[in-house]
Amino acid sequence: MKTINTVTGTVTTDKLGTTLMHEHLLVGWAGWELDCKAPRFDRKTALKRAVERLKELKDLGLSTFLDPCPNDIGRDVVFMAEVADASGVNIICTTGLYKEDLGNTVYMKQRSADEIADIYTAELTEGIGETGIKAALIKCATGKDRITEYEEKCLRAAARASKRTGAPITTHTDDGTMGREQLDIFESEGVDLRKVIIGHSCGSADLRYHTDMLDRGCYLGFDRFGLEFLQPDRLRLAALIGLLGIGFERQIVLSHDSVACVLGRGLGLSPEIMETIRNWEPTHIFKHILPALRNAGVPEEKINTMMVENPRRYFEQ
Ligand SMILES: [Zn+2]
């Protein structure tokens, strides 16, 4: 058992319970606040909506909600704390920077890996700004098919802050690429890979890609259920069921990467695409994905391992 930070104080890992490891309350692409023509952010309405979402999840058995929003795309830990207070669900936040093409990189590009590691360490141990709210883990991100120099610097900073503080790392990958290369960078910095979740790994259905990473001890995030236009759920499920069938349930976590409120003008998805993502809600796993796993013969014990035990062990290792 270990004590970890949530946005409303510390909690022991045995109290985490059923956990969604990658969901968002607010996301705003870098620069959204400069757009005076965008719909105004109505905090009260957004708060009400987020609380309703979390209460619905709580009724489905959820105890903990991890929002890995990096510092540069609209992270608002006070908002998270208000939602946690009102809903009774634990919310965990991260420190970190997003991938280069969608991050707010100009200032951070001028910082060294060690300067960034110092920022991450401070947010993990002292708090975020003046809020006193501390992050519990570190977020990193890479784009498709390559890791830019900037992204590599941020990954190295995450590795160094993780080694200093013991905090685990969670990542973003695009289209199921670069997970292995992310692990190479963490490994070269001496990170224990059991402290790493390679996020959005369900963006690939290549089982070789998955087992290459699992054999190195990390966790894989099957954490974009419902985002059909990026990868159909049936392929995410086929890969997941295959990996569960050969005994990897202790290294997989499930989530949706859902977003309760998008700041600025929204995600910019076409009506046709919006039509395909009707299930992209944080309740989808409870309502549809877990039943599909049970239908495929996945035992309750393995579901519990992914939803409860893995999040706890990830923070304890
Ligand atoms: Zn995300």
Task: Describe, in plain words, how this protein is organized in 3D.
With 317 residues, the chain is α/β, with parallel strands linked by helices. It has one domain (3-316): Alpha-Beta Barrel (TIM Barrel), CATH 3.20.20.140. It contains 11 helices and 12 strands. It has helices at 43-59, 77-87, 106-109, 113-125, 149-165, 179-188, 207-214, 233-245, 271-276, 284-295, 300-316; strands at residues 3-6, 9-12, 19-20, 24-27, 64-67, 90-96, 137-141, 169-172, 196-198, 219-222, 252-254, 259-262. The strands form 3 sheets. The chain has an 8-stranded parallel β-sheet. A two-stranded antiparallel sheet has the order 1-2. α8 links the parallel β10 and β11 (252-254). α1 packs across α2 and α4 crosses α5. The structure holds zinc ion. Zinc ion is lined by residues 22, 24, 68, 172, 257.
